[in-house]
Amino acid sequence: MSTKAATYDAEVVSRTPLTDHLVRLVLGGPGLSGFTSTGVPDEWVGLVVPGQFQSRYYTVRSWDGAELVLDVVVHDVGLVTEWARGGCVGDHVTVTEPKGSFALPGGAAWLLLVGDLTALPAMARIRETVDVPTRVWAEAPEPVADYLPGEVTWLAQEADGVSHLAEVVEGIDWPAGDGYFWMAGESAQMRAIRKHLMRDRQLPSAAYDVMGYWRSVAGRQPRAVDPRRNA
Questions:
Q1: Which one, of 99, 146, 148, 101, lies nearest residue 120 by Cα?
Q2: Within a 10 A sphere around the Cβ of 102, how many other Cβ atoms?
Q3: In the list 29, 109, 111, 142, which could disulfide-bond 11, CB 3.0-4.6 Å?
């Protein structure tokens, strides 16, 4: 017998633009009293906003036991984008149970993080919580050093949203020893990287986590394909 996943009612306590493409939403209220974080660095929740019935999924940037912080990537149009661009403070939303997939193997000597703009919230939280030598490649419209500090290789994202992360990963000079590779972004790029990791690098499945957060569709707005899109 299947068990229905828990949902939580939350109120938008504050809205803060972080960059031209990132907006921070702080959710609170008594409806979150039963919410419990998984503790997994890349955990995500589903979010249903007023006027919508379909959820979109966002990385939990932080949870302090009372307030839930989500950083939303905003576009010109979208189920959540138009709402998040406006006066959403005071609105009530529905939040689903958190889930996560990041699983650093015991004894890992290094961590490689690769992602586009939609992956920045997860990469920022992972970097804050994982204590192993870490290298980061981030593809974004502009560097966001205050958001993702430290040594980061910033890759310019093209105006049309085309990603080149697969080419970047294929050219990485990998560290010696055993480690963990985490990557998220456009779905086609992620499929190419999975093949590279399995066929060329011949990594065991426990040594990497690669997720398609969204799909590029010619002539249309990007659409979510994975429950951790942030957009």
A1: 148
A2: 20
A3: 29
Tokens of 135: 């290298």
**Residue that is last in its domain, among 49, 67, 96:** 96
Q: What is the DSSP letter of 32?
A: G
Q: Check whether residue 115 and residue 83 sit in a common domain.
A: no
- The residue among 179, 159, 157 whose CA lies nearest residue 168 is 157
CA dihedral 83, 141, 180, 96 (to 10 degrees): 0
pTM: 0.88
Tell me the C-alpha distance between 133 and 79, whole Å. Answer: 38
8 Å CB contact between 99 and 227:
yes
Confidence of residue 33 (pLDDT cuts 50, 70, 90): very high
Q: What is the pLDDT of residue 213?
A: 81
Judged by DSSP in three states, 47 sits in strand
| 128 shares its domain with 86 | no
Q: Check if the beta carbon of residue 131 is closer than 8 Å to that of residue 114.
A: no
d(Cα 55, Cα 50) in Å, to the nearest integer?
A: 11
| CA–CA gap between residue 164 and residue 26 (Å, rounded) | 32
Q: Which domain holds residue 171?
A: 111-224
Structural domains counted in the chain: 2
